[in-house]
Amino acid sequence: MVELNKEVQYVKNVGPNRVKLLNKLNIYTLQDLITYFPRTYENRGISKNISECENEEEVLITAVVIRGVNEIFARRMKIYKLIVKNDDIPITITWYNQSYLKKIFKVGDIYNFYGKIEIKNGKYEMQSPVFEQSGINKNTGRIVPIYPLTYGVTQNVLRKIIETGVKETYGHLEETLPKFILEKYKLMGLNDAIKKVHFPENADEYLKARYRLVFEELLIFQLAILRLREQYKADKNGIEFDKNINMSDVINSLPFNLTKAQLRVLEEIDNDMESKKTMNRLLQGDVGSGKTIVAEIASHKAVKSGYQVAVLVPTSILATQHFENFKNTLNKFDIKIELLISSMTKKQKNLIKEKLANGEIDIIIGTHALIEEDVTFKKLGLVVTDEQHRFGVKQRADIVAKGKNPDVIVMSATPIPRTLALILYGDLDISIIDELPPNRKKIDTFAIGKKEEERLYGFIKKQIEDGRQCYIVCPMVEENEEQDLKSVLELWEKLKQDVFSQYNIEYLHGKMKSKEKDDIMLRFKNGQIDILVSTTVIEVGVDVPNANLMVIENAERFGLAALHQLRGRVGRGEYKSYCILKYESQSKIARERMKIMCQTNDGFLISEKDLELRGSGDFFGTAQHRNTGNENS
Ligand code: ADP
Ligand code: MG
User: Domain range holding 279?
Assistant: First the structure.
C-alpha cells in the first residue's frame, strides 16, 4: 500500500515553492492531490485541418514551424509572433511578454497548438495558445483535465504534478467499497476510477469513473445523515419554550399581513419550539419570500421564554441589515439586540462579549466573529443561520455547541426541489415558504447583446432620473482575484468618466474592507449612490427597495441559480423592476439559460431547469468554453 498521508512535498516535481501553492488549494497530502478533481475537461485529442476551422472555434491544430519567433516592441509590451503552417495555410501565433519563447521554436519542428482560431480577412491567427511538441501528448493530444486554480499555479504544472501522484498510487489504493456493492452496481474499481477521472481516454471512461466516485461520496453522505437523523429523532433533551408566549403578539404588530406560507411555517416552528425535541429545521424560500421576519418572530418567542438567540450571517453587510430589521420589528417588545462583526474594534467586541456572557443581550447578530471561542452565552436557546450554503456543517455545530441543545433554524434562499433537499439536508426537517408577499411584481427580464448597450445606458438614465437606483454586476473571474477587481474597476471608471459622469456611481468588491463595504452599502441604501458596480458580493440578501434595475454583465458566465439570486436584489419595493442580462456567448446552453430567465421568476422552477441543463451529458461538449490564454504563463 502507498502512504496516502505522505506530505505532498515528497511527491516528485514538487519543490518548496510549489508546496505553498498547493497548500493554497488545500492540497497537503498525496491523498489530497489525487482527489483534487478536474473542474472540466477539454478535448484536445483530435487535431483539425485549419481549413475546416470556424472563426472563434477552440481547436487543436498540428502545424509545422515555417518562420521562427519574431520579437516586436509595442508600446508597453513585447509581442512574439510565430508563423506555422497547416494544410498549406499559414497561421500567425501570437504571445505577449514571454521572451523565453524566442528560443523554443525551430523551423521544421512540428507542434500542437490548442486555442481559439481567429479568421480575419481570410488570415488565420491564434493568440496565446497552449502548445507542445507533437507526440508528447501531455497538455495536448488527449483529453485534458482542467483544474480549479489559484493565482500562481498553472494548469500545465498542476496537471503534471497530479499525473505523477496518480502514477505513484495506481494499483496500490485499497478498495473502499465492499465487493458486493461494486458488483451489484457495476462500479469501476477505485484505482481505475482515480486514474480515469483525471486522465480519461474517452467520454465513456470518464463517465464510469465519475459515477463510481460520486456513488461513493453520496453513499457515505447518506449513511452519515441517516445516523445523525437517528440520533436526533431519539433526542428528548431539547428546550421546551414557553407555551404562553404567543407568536401572534409580533404578527399583529407588523405593518403587513403574513402570507399563508409564512404562517404555516411559523406554526411548524412554534410546534417544534414547544416540544421536547430539539428543533433542526431548514427554512427554505425564494429570495424576498420573507424568511427574516419568520426568524424574528421565532427569536421573540425564544427571548420571552428566557433564552438568548444567535443569528449567524455570512457577510457584515447582511448582518448589519438584519440587525436593523430585527430592531425594527422587535424593539417595541423590550428586547436587547446587538451586532458583532469583525470590523468592530477590540474594545467594542469585548464589551459585547461580556454582555453576551452575563445575559444582558437577548439577540446577537453576527458574522464568523460569533463562532470564535471566546464568545460565550449565558443561556443560548435558538440559533439561526442565514444563507446556509456559505457555512459548513462544522460552523453550524460550533455555534450550536455554545448552548445546551439549542433549537436551530437554517435559512436558505437557494430554492432546490424537495427531493434534492431531502438528500442534502436529510438531517433537518424542512419548511418551505413557497409564496411571495402579494405586493411583489414580476421582474421584467431581458437578454441583450453588445449592440444594445447604448439603449441600455439610456434606460438606466431614465430610471435614475425617475429617482431609482441601479446595480451593475460583473462576474467573478474564477481563478484570478486580480482579474476580478480589474473588471469591476475598469467598468466603473469607464462609466464614471463617460456615460454616467453626472451621477453618483460607486463600486463594491470582495477585497474591500468590511467597513468600506458596509459604508458603500449604507450609502446605496440611503439613496446617496445612484449606480453600484459590483462583483457578486451583493448576491446575498441585501435589501434596497428603491433599486429597481439589475444589470448583469457577461451573464453567460453565471449559472441559473446565481442569476436568480442576483435578480432577487430588485423588485423589493413598490417600483416596477427590471433585470437586464448582457451576454455575448453564442453557446446553446447560454442562450437556453437566458431564455429561462426571461420566461420565469419562479426560483423552484429555475433550479429544476438548472439541474436539467447541467445534467451529466454535456461535460465534453460546449458547457464550459473558457479562455485558455494564460495556461503557459
Ligand atoms: P428573504 O430573506 O426571504 O429573501 P426578506 O425576509 O428579506 O426576504 O423579506 C423581503 C422584504 O419583504 C422585507 O422588506 C420584508 O419586510 C418584506 N416582507 C416580508 N414578509 C412580507 C409580507 N408578508 N408582506 C409584505 N412584505 C413582507
Ligand atoms: Mg434573506
Answer: 248-433
